[in-house]
């Protein structure tokens, strides 16, 4: 048989707590709040779990940026070093070119009168021959020719022209042109025994070698 619910008055008389409609609503509200708190806590936990990996990935992304920046700086430094090396190489090549052109220019001016000197030494040859032929033609004539010859040689020497020493010297193919060999007791073998035509240098450069005989 079903048990009947005691009336509020009887329950109060027995000392039992009276449970009314309001208590039922409060319990429902409490239950609702409890369920809502659990749901909120669950959502917060889910949100924290979702946020966790993102927070952990942030340092990795920062490290990647630093590595990229370091690589960029290294690449920039390498490019700067390459450019500096190219600049130094170009400067060295330019300095070498400048020295070479200055040297060539100096040699050009130094030997610009070479053709003139060759023509003048031919005149010296004629003077020399005339002096040799005029030995018995009078002292005045010979003195005049010697004076002209000396003036001309002085001018040539001031311009860098020098006579090549040959007679009695060791034969040197750089300065002497041997046209014949001869037997002689006056000079040792390999010595220049006679000069057929004098040779000259211009500032140390041979413009005409001496034409000579060489002793056997």
Oligomer: single chain
Structural class of the secondary elements?
alpha+beta
How many helix segments? 4
* Average pLDDT reading: 75
Distance between the termini: 167 Å
Fill in the CATH topology of the largest domain.
Nucleotide Exchange Factor Grpe, Chain A, domain 2
Order of helix and strand elements from N to C terminus: HHHHEEEEEE
Classified in CATH, the superfamily of the largest domain is Head domain of nucleotide exchange factor GrpE
Structural commentary:
The chain is an alpha+beta fold and 216 residues long. It has 2 domains: 23-110; 113-215, Nucleotide Exchange Factor Grpe, Chain A, domain 2 (Roll), CATH 2.30.22.10. Helices cover 63% and strands 13% of the residues. It has helices spanning 8-14, 21-110, 114-133, 139-158; strands at residues 161-163, 176-182, 192-197, 200-202, 205-208, 210-215. It is elongated. The termini are far apart.
């Amino acid at each position: 048989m079903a048990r009947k619910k005691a009336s509020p008055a009887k329950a109060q008389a027995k000392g039992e707590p009276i449970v009314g409609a309001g208590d039922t609503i409060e319990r429902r509200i409490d239950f609702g709040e409890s369920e809502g708190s659990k749901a909120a806590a669950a959502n917060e936990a889910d949100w924290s779990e979702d946020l966790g990996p993102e927070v952990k990935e942030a340092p990795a992304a920062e490290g990647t940026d630093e590595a990229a920046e370091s690589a960029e700086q290294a690449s920039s430094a390498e490019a700067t070093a390459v450019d500096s090396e190219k600049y130094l190489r170009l400067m060295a090549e330019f300095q070498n070119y400048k020295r070479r052109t200055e040297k060539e220019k100096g040699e050009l001016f130094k030997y610009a009168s070479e053709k003139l000197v060759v023509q003048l030494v031919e005149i010296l040859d004629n003077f020399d021959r005339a002096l040799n032929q005029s030995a018995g033609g009078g002292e005045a004539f010979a003195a005049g020719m010697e004076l002209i010859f000396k003036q001309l040689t002085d001018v040539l020497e001031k311009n860098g022209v020098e006579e090549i020493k040959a007679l009695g010297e060791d034969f040197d193919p750089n300065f002497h042109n041997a046209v014949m060999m001869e037997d002689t007791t006056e000079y040792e073998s390999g010595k220049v025994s006679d000069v057929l035509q004098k040779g000259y240098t211009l500032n140390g450069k041979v413009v005409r070698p001496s034409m000579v005989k060489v002793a056997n």
